[in-house]
Design a protein that fits this description.
Blueprint: H1 7-10, E1 14-16, E2 22-24, H2 27-41, H3 51-62, E3 69-75, E4 81-89, H4 99-108, E5 113-119, H5 129-143, E6 148-156, E7 159-162, H6 163-166
Parallel strand pairs: 5-6
Antiparallel strand pairs: 1-2, 3-4, 3-5, 6-7
Helix pairs in contact: 2-3, 4-5
Length: about 170
């Protein structure tokens, strides 16, 4: 995914207000529209076997947040999407993640696998020691109920880091 400059869009993207008037779109409105478009494009049953598809989806869902958001893609045994869930919201530099809650949601969704994801509002997609530790805790908890952790993707704007591609899983 290429780096985008929202300032180049501001002059050409318009939104309609409640009175039917067209106004210049804000960056937040553009990002919200992108999230809705990706949700419509990749609905339940979409295949997440391609790392590029996963990264595109997660960038559209998580780029632009000013706080950390931890989300999970719940997948079936064929790695097709059951559900995307934003599970925890945090501050500008951290989010508390509770393995028990992730396990409960995986069981509720009847997921066979998950892809974990969170954003770094700083713009740096490098995983911290805390990110790696939390991933191992989640992996161990989910393994107890036979749910595979396929990947953990960190989103920082249009840049991503995949734990699977780095051999961190």
């Amino acid at each position: 995914m290429s780096q985008l400059s929202f300032s180049s869009f501001d002059a050409s993207l318009m939104v309609r207000d409640a009175q039917g008037r067209y106004l210049l779109a804000t960056t937040d409105q553009i990002l919200q529209a992108a999230r809705q478009a990706i949700e419509h494009k990749l609905q339940r049953g979409a295949s997440f076997t391609s790392p590029a598809t996963v990264k595109e989806y997660l960038c559209a869902k998580q780029a632009g947040f000013e706080h950390e958001v931890f989300a999970v893609l719940f997948l079936d045994s064929q790695l097709c999407l059951i559900e995307y869930a934003e599970m925890f919201r945090g501050t500008i530099s951290s989010a508390s993640v509770h393995p028990r809650e992730v396990v409960k949601e995986a069981l509720r969704a009847n997921a066979a696998a998950v892809i974990l994801s969170h954003n770094h509002p700083s713009g740096n997609p490098e995983p911290s020691a805390a990110d790696q530790s939390m991933t191992q805790q989640l992996r161990a908890a989910l393994k107890l109920v036979d749910v595979q952790v396929v990947d953990h993707v960190i989103v920082a704007g249009s840049r991503t880091t995949s734990f699977a591609e780095r051999g961190l899983l």
